[in-house]
Amino acid sequence: MHLIFTNMNESRSSLKKAFKTIIKPRIHLVFTGLGLIVISKGASFVAPLAMRTFVDDLIPNKDLQGIKTLVMVVLIALILQATTSFLLTRLVSVAAQYLITELRIQVQQKLLSLPVRFFENTQTGALVSRVMKDVEGVKSLIGTGLVQLIGGLFTAVVAFVFLIRLSLPMTLFSLAPLALFALIAFKAFTTVRPVFRERGKIEAEVKGRLNETFSGIRMIKGFSAESREKSRFEKGATTLFENIKKSMIYMALISSGSILLAGVATTLVTGLGGYYIIEGSLSLGEFLQFTFLLGLLISPIFQLTSVGTEITDALAGLDRTEELFEKISEFEKHKGAELIGGFHSLAFDKVCFSYNEGRKVLNNISFELLAGKTIALVGSSGAGKSTLANIAARFLEPDSGHLIINGQPANEIDLASYRKQLGVVLQDDFLFDGTIRENVLYGNPECSEEELASALDAAYVSEFVGSLEKGIETVIGERGIKLSGGQRQRLAIARALVANPRLLILDEATSNLDAESEYYIQLGLENLTRNRATLVIAHRLSTIQNADIIIVLEKGEIVESGTHKELFEKQGRYHSLYTRQARI
After folding, report:
1. 528 pLDDT band (50/70/90 cuts)?
2. Helices 124-132 & 284-325, crossing angle to 10 degrees?
3. Residue from 37, 52, 53 nearest 85 by CA
4. What is the largest CA-CA distance in the chain?
5. Angle of CA points 455, 115, 509, to nearest 5°
6. DSSP string covering 473-488, please?
7. Is 360 helix (H, G, I), strand (E, B) or coil?
8. CB-based contacts of 36: which residues, under 8 Å, 6+ apart?
9. What are the angstrom distances between the C-alpha of 382 and each of 69, 359, 361, 555?
10. I need a surface site. Which of 2, 17, 119, 268 has the fewest CB within 10 A?
11. Are the beta carbons of 43 and 77 closer than 8 angstroms?
12. Is the whole model's pTM more than 0.85, yes or no?
C-alpha cells in the first residue's frame, strides 16, 4: 500500500513538472489537438445515433430517400473523421517531433557543460541514450498520445450520457466490470512505472558496453577476449530481458483484463437487452444503438493500455532527463566571474586532489608558471603529472588549495575566457572522423591558410600529408584510425598550435613519435613556445633540458625542482630517472 501511494505521489509530481515545462508553453497546440479530436470523436457518434432511426423508422417505412440521406450524412461524418485525424498528425505530432529535437539539443548542450569528472564516471552509451532515447517520450505528452487519451475520455463521457438516456439498468450492468478493470489498470501502472525507469538505466549500460566493445575491437581480438565480451553483453541483455518481461506481464494483465471485462460487459448487455426487447420496453434499433455506443465507451479502455504505457515510459524518461538538468554545469559554478583577455601567470597554491576519498593523488603542490616560461613535469608513472595538467586546464577542480590565474583565484575567472587562452595536447588525444584540415582547424576555424601551413610544418605534419592521395583533405576515420600513432599525435599538436594559445599544455605530447619526427617537432616547439607559457609533461627527459624549471613529482608531491643542470648535478631523483632512461 505504501508503494502505491509513493508511486501516486511520484506520478503527480512528474505530471506537474511535465505540464509546467513541456505542456504549458505549448498549450495552444494541445488545445488545437483537443479541438480536432472533439470534432473527430463527435463525428464518430453519427453512425451509432443513426442506427436507431435506420432500424426503427426508415426500414419499416421503406423510406429509400431517408436511407440515402442517412448514408450521405454518415459518409460526410467519416470523411470529417479522416480529415481531422490527418490534421491531428500533421499539426500535433510534427510539433511533438520538433520538441523532441529541441530537447535533444538542450540535453546535448547540458552534457557539454558538465565537468570532465562527470564523463569519467559515465559510459558513453549511457550519455547517447540520454540524448536520443529519454526525450522520445515527449511525443506521448504533447503529441497524439495524450490528445487521443483525452479525446477517448471525452468520447466515453458523451457515450455514457447517451447510454443512460437509453437504459439506466443496462448502463449500470455494463459499468460494473469496467470499474473493476479501472482499479486493476491503476494498480498495474503505478507498479510498472519504476520498472520503466529502471529499464532506461539498464539500456544505457548495455549500450555503453556495446559501444566500448566496438571501439576496442582490436584490443578484444588481440587478447582473444571475444568470449568474455559475449558473456558480459549476454548478462546485460538478460537483465534487460527480465525487466522487459516484467513490464510485459503487467501490460498483458491490463490488456487481457480489458478484453475479458469488455467481453463480460458486452455479454451482460446482450442478455439484458434481449430480455428488454422481448418484454417490449426496448426496440431493436435502440438496442443496436446502445451496443454501438457501448463500443465507444469501451474503446478508450483499450487505448488506456497502449497510451498509458507510452505516458508511463515518457514520464520515466523525463525523470532521468530532469536529473541531468539538475546537475550544476562547470560554467554555472563560475557565473559572473571576471573575463580575461590574456595570460600572465598560473600558480598552484598548496593544491591537493584525490579521485577517491582518502587517497591523495596530489598533495600540497605549489609552483608558478609565468608567461613566456616553460615548466616541465617529470616523474614515474602514477606520480600525478597528468592530474596536475588537468587541473591547470581546469578540467578538474582541486579538493583544497587554490589555482591562481593572473593573480586571482581561478573561481573568480570566467572559465570560457580562460580556456580560450589554452592549447592542449593530451597523452591520449582525440581526433574526429573527418579530414586532416577539419581536425587541425578544430581549435581555430578562422585560421588563415598561411597560419595553417605554418602549424602543419611546425608539427611536422606536412612530411606525411604530401604522401597522401588527397593530402590535407584526406579523411582519417574514427579517432584517426587510418593514421599511425605518431601521425595522430603530430596532428593533435598542429591543432593546438593553430589555436595560437597563450598557455600551452603538452601531456606526453611526443611520446608516440619516432626519433626523427620528435627531433623536428622539438625544433618547431622551441619556436612556438617562445613568448608562451608552456607546461610540459615529458616522458623522454632529453626533450625538456631547456625548460626554465623542471619539477619532479613522486607519489603526488614535489620532491625536486630546478633547471636540468641543477637537478642533474644534485644527483637526486631526477638524476636517477635521467641516467636510467639514457641507459635504456
Report:
1. low
2. 140
3. 37
4. 121
5. 30
6. G-B--GGGTTS-HHHH
7. coil
8. 84, 87, 88, 91, 92, 147
9. 89, 13, 8, 7
10. 2
11. yes
12. no
Question: Regarding beta strands 503-507 and 533-537, do their DSSP bridges make them parallel or antiparallel, or are they unpaired?
Answer: parallel
Helical (H) or strand (E) element with 222:
helix 217-222
DSSP 437-450: HHHHGGG-TT--HH
pLDDT of residue 216: 64
317 in Cβ contact with 136 (< 8 Å) = yes
Q: Is 281 helix (H, G, I), strand (E, B) or coil?
A: coil
Tell the residue number behind the cell numbers 625542482, with chain if given. 561
Beta bridge partners of 413: 338
pLDDT at residue 428, rounded to an integer: 65
Taking residue 452's Cβ as centre, other Cβ atoms within 10 Å add up to: 19
Q: Which domains does the chain have, with CATH numbers?
A: 18-325 (1.20.1560.10), 345-583 (3.40.50.300)
Of the spans 165-169, 182-186, 259-263, which averages the highest pLDDT?
Answer: 165-169
In angstroms, the Cα distances linking 76 to 34, 50, 96, 196, 503 are 21, 13, 29, 42, 74
Q: Is the dihedral of CA 438, 441, 445, 446 positive or negative?
A: negative
**Mean pLDDT score, 431-442:** 80
Q: Which residue has the higher pLDDT, 272 or 349?
A: 349
- What's the grid cell of residue 417? 575566457
Is the pLDDT at 183 greater than 70? The verdict is: yes
Q: Take residue 420 and report the three cell numbers written for it.
A: 580560450
Quickly tell me which residue has 525507469 as its cell.
197
Task: Please provide the average confidence, as pLDDT, over all residues in the chain.
Answer: 76
Spell out the alpha helix ranges (H) of 326-359: none
Query: How far apart are the C-alpha atoms of 259 and 552, rounded to whole Å?
Result: 76
Over the Cα atoms of the chain, what is R_g?
35
